[in-house]
Design brief:
There is one protein chain. The protein is mostly helical. The chain is elongated, with a radius of gyration of 19 Å. It has a domain of 132 residues. It is built from 10 helices and no strands. Helix content is 63%, strand content 0%.
């Protein structure tokens, strides 16, 4: 089946089937790369370096993230790239990666092999990243007040009456906002159609997002690096 005939945006995202500009690739996947580096024991600063290294590798080989079934799954390629960049940092002269909380992490490590299967944590993190992409699409599509009502009511547990007061919507429109977002999410991602835990999955994805300070730091760092290329 060609990428054009795939049923949902989520399917295409999972396989890298949608052509992307480089900046779109960065916005779509930097949080995933950052979270994976942190999970491998990197400090905030080292994780930012891993993101930069991964993004530069993608930038220098722009065709690699376009869908090609001969290369296997896109997520596996990206996971291998992240693991190899973490291993590269561990082999640098210091031989260490500073871990969470500022403590020294593990010593040198072998690079990940291309044949290594992705672990369950990477698979889960990848799906969370794609869920956030779909939510960004929905947020751009919807009236800002409606999406705000969804976040306040469905994700933060604010009573509908209070949300209505805050947004200027009717209580019924607040209830409907949740239905509209989840219905659209199911339209974009077929695997969510029979999922009874979408609210919780969305909450978990939002909670895993890095702090805005990290996004600002990384965006500035990447922009400066790109200017020098």
């Amino acid at each position: 089946m060609s990428s054009e005939t795939r049923a949902t945006l989520l399917d295409r995202l999972r396989e890298g089937a949608d052509p992307m500009a480089w900046d779109e690739f960065f916005q779509r996947y930097w949080r995933l790369v950052y979270a994976s580096a942190r999970r491998h024991g990197c400090s905030d600063d080292t994780a930012e370096e891993i993101v930069q290294d991964v993004m530069l590798a993608v930038f220098e080989r722009r065709d690699v993230y376009r869908y090609d079934p001969e290369r296997g799954r896109f997520r596996d390629w990206l996971g291998t790239l992240v693991r190899n960049k973490v291993a590269d940092h561990r082999r640098r002269p210091s031989g260490r990666i500073r871990g969470r909380g500022g403590d020294a992490g593990a010593g040198s490590a072998e690079p990940a092999d291309d044949a290594d299967p992705p672990d369950a944590a990477w698979e889960a993190a990848f799906e969370e990243a794609l869920l956030m992409v779909l939510l960004d699409v929905i947020q751009r599509e919807m009236n800002p007040r409606t999406y705000q009502a969804f976040e306040l009511y469905a994700l933060h547990g604010v009573p509908a009456a209070k949300v209505a007061e805050t947004t200027g919507l009717t209580p019924n429109a607040v209830y409907q906002s949740r239905k509209n977002v989840l219905r659209r999410l199911r339209d974009l991602g077929s695997s969510y159609r029979d999922d009874g835990q979408l609210d919780q999955r969305i909450k978990q994805a939002l909670e895993s997002r890095p702090h805005a300070r990290i996004e600002r730091s990384l965006t500035a760092r990447i922009a400066k690096t790109m200017q020098s290329r």
